[in-house]
Amino acid sequence: MSRIHPPEFGDLSPDISEILLTENQIQQRVGELAGEISELYRDKNPVLVGVLKGVLFFMADLLRALPIATEVDFLSVANYGGDSRKQGPVRLVKDLETPIEGRHVLFVEDVIDTGLTLNYLLRTLKARQPASLEVCVLFNKPTKRLIDIPLRFKGFDIPDRFVVGYGLDFHEKYRNLPFVGLLKPGVFSPKL
Ligand SMILES: O=P(O)(O)OC[C@H]1O[C@H](OP(=O)(O)OP(=O)(O)O)[C@H](O)[C@@H]1O
Ligand code: HPA
Ligand SMILES: [Mg+2]
């Protein structure tokens, strides 16, 4: 089975300087992660919890690769600091609809950078007394971490660079690229 993509990504392609992970590499690793996850959660009917919006493609692909019964739910967060994101605390702007007390919860994240977002969310979910709470992250930037977080399932360690694609955005753009890449210096400005 193959997916249909335009040969070029229209007006997005010229903004990309380098592809770090191809669509095939990502899809293969997602399949491997699904295998590992299904071993741990067989017969446990876990709740997969994702944080919007970056996780949308990873969650969709992971769910479809999992050969076990699961449920899915989503959270949404905002940074108190507005534009100075990644520096201040986060707050919940959309909560789960699923009560997770006594449930096996797998937190699914697209990228972990400082770990501040995940740290806040894990503390919030732990207080609801799930039967278990583990983390699955696709892209991990180990050198950016401010808070240590145990990662039960991990897709790739990636360098400390700002990446886009496969759900990851720069000012809400580039999420729809099927690969993960770097933006050209003229396009990406960390101060924006
Ligand atoms: O480890 P941290 O430094 O906290 O960064 C990781 C968070 O940043 C990204 O979300 P973002 O705030 O970009 O929201 P989005 O998913 O809607 O793009 C990502 O999806 C994580 O939730
Ligand atoms: O590299 C990144 N790209 C997009 N969003 C992000 N959020 C944390 N790190 C990143
Ligand atoms: Mg983002």
UniProtKB/TrEMBL annotation:
Entry's localization field: Cytoplasm
Domain of life of the source: Bacteria
Cofactor(s) the record lists: Mg(2+)
Cross-referenced Pfam families: Pribosyltran
GO MF terms held by the record: guanine phosphoribosyltransferase activity; hypoxanthine phosphoribosyltransferase activity; magnesium ion binding; nucleotide binding
Catalytic activity from the UniProt record: GMP + diphosphate = guanine + 5-phospho-alpha-D-ribose 1-diphosphate; IMP + diphosphate = hypoxanthine + 5-phospho-alpha-D-ribose 1-diphosphate
An annotated GO cellular component: cytosol
The UniProt record lists the keyword Chloroplast: no
Record-level GO BP terms: GMP salvage; guanine salvage; hypoxanthine metabolic process; IMP salvage; purine ribonucleoside salvage
Record key words, sorted: Cytoplasm, Glycosyltransferase, Magnesium, Metal-binding, Nucleotide-binding, Purine salvage, Transferase
PANTHER family: HYPOXANTHINE PHOSPHORIBOSYLTRANSFERASE, HYPOXANTHINE-GUANINE PHOSPHORIBOSYLTRANSFERASE
Similarity remark: Belongs to the purine/pyrimidine phosphoribosyltransferase family.
Protein name, per record: Hypoxanthine phosphoribosyltransferase
